[in-house]
Amino acid sequence: MTIEEYILNHIDEEPAYLAAINRNTWVRQMNPRMCSGHLQGRVLSMIARMIQPQQILEVGTFTGYSALCFAEALPENGCVDTIEMDDELEDFIRDNFRNSPYENKINLYIGDALAIIPSLEKMYDLVFLDAEKSQYTRYYDAVFPKVKNGGYILADNTIWDGKVTQNVLSNDLKTREIIRFNDLIKADSRVEKVILPLRDGLTIIRKK
Ligand SMILES: C[S@@+](CC[C@H](N)C(=O)[O-])C[C@H]1O[C@@H](n2cnc3c(N)ncnc32)[C@H](O)[C@@H]1O
Q1: CATH code (residue 112)
Q2: What percent of the chain has pLDDT over 70?
Q3: Which of 40, 52, 97, 112 is deepest in the core (most CB within 10 A)?
Q4: 132 CA distance to ligand 1 centroid (A)?
């Protein structure tokens, strides 16, 4: 048994509607690895339960798995706003939300997050950055004014398969941007930060 299998056997079960999304994502979508999956999903949900957010913003919905993990942790009147640029995913995402208990807690925005974020007239307790890796610092700058003081930003894939510690090819724009993002967060005195070596790296950032 691998460590991952052992962990999965000793944490909360994956709800049936999330297991179905994961399965259907692997059958029907390109790049299914982007879906958070059982372990990361339970971690995101647990983090949200610890933070007790009312308002959550997600940048990068994909098939809706992580949005639903956040939604399950929300209080009665809480809400997840989630943004996905690929309009071909819209029907799949909406079906996934409809087949869960949380459809009424999630607002799906289809479009480029960099265009949509400035139009959101809300302050958020928790933001999850999980869209295009070569745009991470732009997402961070866009969401920062929308995060409440004491609120959190989670950034996924910040270890990027270990590439952040290796020699980077000049044309590897994603790795270069993630390194730039990690350096920027480290130097940003407005926030506290820690990186969890979960899956592909999850940075937890707290706005002071
Ligand atoms: C890693 S996947 C998200 C995975 C999802 N959060 C989960 O954990 O299951 C990244 C998604 O971001 C979307 N994306 C990329 N650039 C975007 C942008 N500028 N605005 C909104 N979505 C974007 C991609 O189409 C893709 O579906």
Answers
A1: 3.40.50.150
A2: 100
A3: 97
A4: 6
In the reported structure, the alpha carbon of residue 82 is separated from the centroid of ligand 1 by a whole-number distance in angstroms of: 10
Distance 1 CA to ligand 1 centre (A): 32
Q: Which atom of ligand 1 is nearest to the CA of 63?
A: 9
Count of domains observed in the chain: 1
Ligand 1 site residues, Cβ closer than 6 angstroms = 34-36, 60, 62, 65-66, 83-86, 112-114, 130-132, 135
d(CA 136, CA 160): 12
Instruction: Write out pLDDT tens, residues 86-123.
Output: 999 999 999 999 999 999 999 999 999 999 999 999 99
Q: Which domain holds residue 152?
A: 3-158+165-207
